[in-house]
Specification:
heterodimer, A: mainly alpha, 7 helices, B: mainly alpha, three-stranded antiparallel β-sheet, flat
Chain lengths: 177, 221
C-alpha cells in the first residue's frame, strides 16, 4: 500500500509539472512526457503512442492520454490521479487569470505574450512529433499507415476519430491475415 | 434536446443582474417573495441548463477539436460575440494546460461567475474522462487478443499521422503570423527535440527571447 501511494505521488508530481508547463496546448509537452513516463518504466514507447491514439478517440480535451499512462503506472487510481494532476493545476491558474483578466485585457501584454508563445509552442510540438516518431516502430506497415493517414488528414476534412478507427481496421487486417 | 437547453439559457441571472441573451441590466426595484422564488427557480434552471450545455459540449467534441467546437457553439447560439470568442481563445492560448479547459473556465465565468466556473469546467471534461477510463480498461484491463494488438498497432501509426498533420498546419500559421516565428520555432525544436533539454529550460530561454522579440516588434510599430 505504501509503495502504491509512492507511485501515485510520483504520478501526481510528474503530471502536475507537465500540465503547468504545457503552454500553447498539451501536445507541446508530449516529448517531455514520453521521456518522463518511459524513463520511469511506466509504459513502453509503443504504449505511449497507443495512449495518444486512445486520447484522440475520446471526447473533450485531447490530452486524456494521461489516463491510460497513469493506469499502467498505478491502476485505476493512477489513471484518475494523472488526470486530476494534469488538468487541475492549469485550471486553477486559469481561474486566477480570469479573475485578473479585466485589469490586463486592454494592455498590449496579452497580445505580445500570445505572439511570443505561438512559435515556441509550434517548435515544441514539432519536437514532440520528432521525438515520438523516432522512438516508435519503424516497420514498413506502420510507416505506410502513417503516410497514408497524414495525406488524409492534410487533404480532407474527415474527422480524426474516423481516420484513426480506419487505421485500426487496417492494423487488424494486417495482424490477422 | 439542444433547443431545450438553449431555451433554458436565454434567461439567466448573474450576481443580481438579469441577463437576457447576453444583455445585462440591473434589477430596478426590490423583488417580491413571489419574484424572489421565481428568480431562484429561474437561476436554478439557468445553472442547470448551463451545466447540461457544458456536459453536452464535452460529449460531442471528438478528436482534439473540443476548443473550437465549444467556442463556436456558444458564438453561433448568440451567447457570445465574435469579440468575446477571440478574447476567450486568446486568453486560453497564453495559459498553460488544455486550451479547452482554460476556455471553458473563461466562458463559464462570464455566464455564471467565478464560483460556478470550476463546476462547469468539471462537467465539460467529465465525459472525456469517463470514456478514456472505459477504453483504458478495455485495452489494458486484461489479456489482449490478436485483433486488439492489430487495432492498437494501426491506431498508433494513425495517431502519429494526426500529430504530424496538426503540427504542419500550426507551423504554417506560425510562420505567417510572427516575424521571428520560424527562427523561434526552429530554436525550440532544436533545443527540445534534438538536444533533449528540459521543457522548463526551453520555455525560460527560448520563451524569453521570443517575448523580447515580440515586445521590440510591438515597440517598433
Amino acid at each position: 500500500m505504501t509503495a502504491d501511494l509512492a507511485v501515485l505521488l510520483q504520478v501526481a508530481l510528474v503530471f502536475a509539472k507537465l500540465g503547468l508547463l504545457s503552454f500553447g496546448g498539451g501536445t507541446t509537452v508530449l516529448a517531455e512526457m514520453q521521456r518522463e513516463v518511459v524513463g520511469r518504466g511506466w509504459v513502453t514507447h509503443d504504449q505511449f503512442l497507443e495512449s495518444y491514439a486512445l486520447g484522440q478517440l475520446t471526447p473533450g480535451p485531447g490530452m486524456t492520454l494521461v489516463i491510460p499512462i497513469g493506469y499502467q503506472a498505478g491502476g485505476i487510481w493512477g489513471g484518475l490521479v494523472a488526470f486530476i494532476a494534469f488538468f487541475a493545476p492549469p485550471a486553477l491558474v486559469a481561474l486566477a487569470a480570469v479573475s485578473l483578466w479585466g485589469r490586463v485585457r486592454d494592455t498590449r501584454f496579452p497580445r505580445i505574450l500570445r505572439e511570443a508563445l505561438l512559435p515556441v509552442a509550434a517548435g515544441l510540438t514539432l519536437a514532440s512529433v520528432y521525438t515520438v516518431g523516432l522512438s516508435t516502430s519503424h516497420q514498413a506497415a506502420a510507416l505506410g499507415i502513417t503516410l497514408g493517414a497524414t495525406i488524409v488528414f492534410m487533404c480532407t476534412e474527415i474527422p480524426p476519430p474516423v481516420v484513426l478507427l480506419a487505421a485500426g481496421l487496417v492494423g487488424i487486417l494486417l495482424r490477422l491475415y | 434536446m439542444f433547443s431545450k437547453i438553449v431555451a433554458a439559457l436565454t434567461v439567466s441571472q448573474t450576481n443580481g443582474h438579469t441577463s437576457v441573451q447576453g444583455i445585462v441590466s440591473p434589477l430596478r426595484s426590490p423583488p417580491s417573495d413571489h419574484l424572489l422564488q421565481s428568480g431562484a427557480a429561474s437561476r436554478w434552471r439557468s445553472r442547470a441548463g448551463l451545466g447540461l450545455l457544458f456536459l453536452w459540449l464535452g460529449s460531442i467534441s471528438l478528436g482534439g477539436k473540443s476548443t473550437p467546437l465549444l467556442f463556436d457553439h456558444l458564438r453561433r447560439r448568440g451567447r457570445l460575440t465574435q469579440a468575446d470568442w477571440l478574447e476567450g481563445y486568446s486568453l486560453a492560448k497564453i495559459l498553460p494546460g488544455s486550451t479547452g479547459v482554460s476556455g471553458s473556465i473563461f466562458f463559464a465565468n462570464r455566464f455564471a461567475g467565478l464560483t460556478a466556473a470550476p463546476i462547469l469546467c468539471g462537467l465539460y471534461v467529465l465525459p472525456g474522462m469517463l470514456a478514456a477510463l472505459a477504453l483504458t480498461l478495455l485495452i489494458y484491463g486484461g489479456l489482449r487478443p490478436p485483433w486488439l494488438e492489430g487495432a492498437a498497432f494501426g491506431m498508433s501509426a494513425g495517431a502519429l499521422a494526426l500529430l504530424l498533420a496538426t503540427t504542419l498546419r500550426s507551423m504554417t500559421t506560425t510562420v505567417r503570423t510572427a516575424r521571428f516565428g520560424a527562427l523561434v520555432a526552429a530554436l525550440a525544436f532544436v533545443t527540445y527535440g534534438v538536444f533533449g533539454l528540459d521543457v522548463l529550460v526551453v520555455l525560460i530561454t527560448v520563451g524569453s527571447l521570443s517575448v523580447l522579440a515580440s515586445w521590440r516588434q510591438t515597440e517598433a510599430k
